[in-house]
Amino acid sequence: RTTTFRFLNRCLRNRTIPMASSIFTHCHYSSSPSSLAFRLHRHPFHVPPTCLRFSFLHSSPASSHVDPLAAMVTESSAKVIDGKAVAKQIRDEITAEVSKMREAIGVIPGLAVILVGDRKDSATYVRNKKKACESVGINSLEANLPEDSTEEEVLNYISGYNEDPSVHGILVQLPLPSHMNEQNILNAVRIEKDVDGFHPLNIGRLAMRGREPLFVPCTPKGCIELLHRYSVSIKGKRAVVIGRSNIVGMPAALLLQREDATVSVVHSRTSNPEEMTRQADIIIAAVGQANMVKGSWIKPGAVIIDVGINPVEDASSPRGYKLVGDVCYEEAMKVASAVTPVPGGVGPMTIAMLLQNTLISAKRMHNFE
Ligand SMILES: NC(=O)C1=CN([C@@H]2O[C@H](COP(=O)(O)OP(=O)(O)OC[C@H]3O[C@@H](n4cnc5c(N)ncnc54)[C@H](OP(=O)(O)O)[C@@H]3O)[C@@H](O)[C@H]2O)C=CC1
Ligand SMILES: Nc1nc(=O)c2c([nH]1)NC[C@@H]1CN(c3ccc(C(=O)N[C@@H](CCC(=O)O)C(=O)O)cc3)C=[N+]21
């Protein structure tokens, strides 16, 4: 530790950047900013070059009037919540359970995905879901319908899958083309197969005390799972959810409340979202605005779950764009105690939770375990 201090102090004096050195130094502590239990930690890819600015070189409110050593400690110090690794662990658990079930009762869980239209991002997500199913031994069925399909055609596919005993989960990829009524379509999925958890009856049960939904929506479930697996306590904490969509923000707020957090929801009409957000011990951001949540929005030591997936132009990437979250990652790393990266945070967890919901469904239908 002493060596690290000396090294970082030297860097500070010289205003050089330790990450640029070959020794992968990343100043890291694991609980709160007041903790001095920091240690050397290897972060091979999570820290983009812009993270390497020192706090005292610019004036973010969270880092002004601190002495250089403290500035150094608060610099790039949050823990990275590695959703990709946790998702892998969960997929391994699912693989084992799927094979146990197949051996015991000869049932293989099946997931049917309905994709309407040719949005590139939707096609990518569906492809990823299919790959993930294969990786754990879940059967996947796919219906690709043209953009100009009628609502009735989609409903026919849903009825077919509702009746098909080899299908335990049905997912209709959103968004649907604008000429379709999303409500009618989501309502048509049999609730016992609603692995997305979007059916109003499932959401209603999620909202009510003493009731249990058959399925919890995958993205919010993935967020909570990350908090659990990183031992972040939720009970009694102040949580702010930014965004109130049916698929992420609203169910995320309901789940946090079920976990005994005190929850506020920030949306596009909230006056002073920054001040609201700064109260939070836990922030879930699901807005769809690249880098909206700045360092100054974050209470020191808060835990941040960044759901946003926003493409931004990037000439240096082979695709011509890169994905960033709703939270300014570099700034959050300096103020928060733990942050999910984008990509590699919530996204992989969403898919892992979909597989988990499909397994839960198959088990329930066959009274297994
Ligand atoms: N990682 C994953 O697995 C997933 C990621 N996503 C990503 O999460 C993000 C959100 O998705 P989704 O919930 O579907 O998006 P929606 O567009 O449906 O909802 C966005 C929400 O954010 C609110 N909002 C928009 N602008 C602002 C603002 N300036 N200040 C405060 N609130 C604002 C909106 O408020 P209002 O209600 O007032 O309009 C709305 O409630 C997207 O980037 C999406 O790609 C989505 C699903 C899964
Ligand atoms: N019925 C329905 N259910 C959904 O769950 C649903 C949906 N419709 N429509 C679209 C959103 C979006 N969504 C994502 C899932 C995984 C990643 C994901 O795996 N992201 C990777 C990056 C992927 C990449 O590099 O392109 C990551 O964050 O690391 C992202 C987004 C699910 N959604």
From TrEMBL:
This entry's Gene Ontology molecular function terms read:
methenyltetrahydrofolate cyclohydrolase activity; methylenetetrahydrofolate dehydrogenase (NADP+) activity
Pathway involvement? One-carbon metabolism; tetrahydrofolate interconversion
Please name one Pfam family that this protein belongs to.
Answer: THF_DHG_CYH_C
The record, for SUPFAM superfamilies, names: Aminoacid dehydrogenase-like, N-terminal domain, NAD(P)-binding Rossmann-fold domains
Record carries keyword Hydrolase: yes
Q: Tell me the ranges covered by the Tetrahydrofolate dehydrogenase/cyclohydrolase NAD(P)-binding domain, including all copies.
A: 217-364
- Catalysed reaction(s)? (6R)-5,10-methenyltetrahydrofolate + H2O = (6R)-10-formyltetrahydrofolate + H(+); (6R)-5,10-methylene-5,6,7,8-tetrahydrofolate + NADP(+) = (6R)-5,10-methenyltetrahydrofolate + NADPH
- Subunit record text: Homodimer.
Keywords for the protein's UniProt record, in alphabetical order: Hydrolase, Multifunctional enzyme, NADP, One-carbon metabolism, Oxidoreductase, Photorespiration, Signal
PANTHER family tied to this protein? C-1-TETRAHYDROFOLATE SYNTHASE, CYTOPLASMIC (PTHR48099:SF5), C-1-TETRAHYDROFOLATE SYNTHASE, CYTOPLASMIC-RELATED (PTHR48099)
What domain of life is recorded for the organism? Eukaryota
Q: Does the keyword Oxidoreductase apply?
A: yes
**Species whose genome carries this gene:** Clitoria ternatea
What does this protein do, in the record's words?
Catalyzes the oxidation of 5,10-methylenetetrahydrofolate to 5,10-methenyltetrahydrofolate and then the hydrolysis of 5,10-methenyltetrahydrofolate to 10-formyltetrahydrofolate.
Choose one Gene Ontology CC annotation of this protein and give it. Answer: cytosol
Extract the CDD domains matched here.
NAD_bind_m-THF_DH_Cyclohyd (cd01080)
Return one Gene Ontology term, BP aspect.
tetrahydrofolate interconversion
- Please report the name of this protein according to its UniProt entry: Methenyltetrahydrofolate cyclohydrolase
Q: Which family does it belong to?
A: Belongs to the tetrahydrofolate dehydrogenase/cyclohydrolase family.
List the HAMAP family: THF_DHG_CYH
Q: Where is the Tetrahydrofolate dehydrogenase/cyclohydrolase catalytic domain?
A: 81-196
Chain segments annotated as coiled-coil in the UniProt record: none
